[in-house]
Amino acid sequence: MAKATSAEGRGRRVFVDKQSPQAYGALVQTAEAVRATAGEAGLDRQLVELVNLRVSQINGCAFCLNLHTRAALRAGETTQRLGVLAAWRDTEVFTPRERAALGLAEATTSPADAAAQEAAYGVARQVLTDDEISAVIWVAITMNAFNRVSIMSKHPVRPIPGPRQTPSA
Question: Which of 11, 31, 49, 102 sits CB 3.0–4.6 Å from 72 for a disulfide?
Answer without folding.
Answer: 49
